[in-house]
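Example 9 (inverse folding). The structure is encoded as follows.
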């Protein structure tokens, strides 16, 4: 059986109108349902079949939205914060949340959505969705670091990390791939090997790469194909 939703709920999730504003629009005849004026906002509809028009514009229904952001430094990976700017604050849409977090001073690929199941699957270590980071450290990298990462780093508090993939880019920069998301994990892994991370950028999730045309703080919606790339976990 189809899940039907109240008309005012659908309009509020697909537009910037508040419930109060929607009621007013209905009273003034500015809401159409299948081309007929609809003044009852509590009527239940099938959002995938019924055609809703608000102020002359047909709603393009999306059950969930997914944004890719090139996260800048100094912005919190959170939905809201009383004292600091969050990634949701700089998005064109609200009522969303970041799927996972990047440290305040970490940059790069962040997915922001309203799909809780998607976020759970992406973040679960059991799903083996690898997150790819480029890390710049304070001193020359050695082969032993690669070995330690691939054997499973033991953090200072005794936490054992799953196997990570490690490839040196140059003497001070490495590409690290992990399928976990512990607090400050990449930085703590390097710290366990006596390194300090100076710069950290996430460049890929699964097979979805950061769109380099996005400047810091910019975002765009993901296509269906790009969303599916997140769960393609081939490690090259």
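The amino acid assigned to each position is listed next.
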């Amino acid at each position: 059986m189809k899940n039907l939703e109240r008309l005012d709920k659908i309009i509020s999730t697909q537009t910037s109108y508040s419930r109060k504003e929607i009621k007013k629009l209905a009273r003034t005849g500015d809401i159409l349902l299948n081309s007929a004026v609809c003044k009852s906002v509590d009527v239940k509809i099938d959002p995938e079949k019924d055609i809703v028009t608000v102020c002359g514009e047909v709603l393009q229904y999306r059950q969930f939205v997914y944004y890719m952001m090139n996260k800048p430094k100094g912005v919190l990976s959170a939905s809201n914060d009383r004292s600091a700017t969050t990634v949701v604050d700089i998005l064109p849409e609200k009522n969303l949340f970041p799927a996972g977090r990047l440290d305040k001073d970490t940059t790069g690929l962040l997915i922001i959505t309203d799909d809780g199941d998607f976020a759970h699957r992406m973040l679960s270590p059991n799903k083996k969705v690898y997150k790819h980071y480029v890390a710049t450290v304070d001193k020359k990298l050695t082969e032993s670091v690669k070995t330690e990462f691939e054997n499973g780093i033991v953090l200072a508090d005794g936490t054992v990390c799953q196997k990570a993939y490690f490839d040196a880019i140059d003497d001070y920069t490495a590409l690290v791939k992990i399928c976990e998301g512990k607090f400050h994990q990449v930085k703590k892994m390097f710290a366990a090997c006596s390194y300090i991370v100076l710069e950290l950028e996430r460049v890929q999730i699964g097979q979805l790469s950061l769109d380099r045309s996005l400047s810091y703080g910019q975002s765009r919606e993901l296509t269906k194909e790009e969303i599916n790339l997140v769960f393609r976990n081939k490690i090259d």
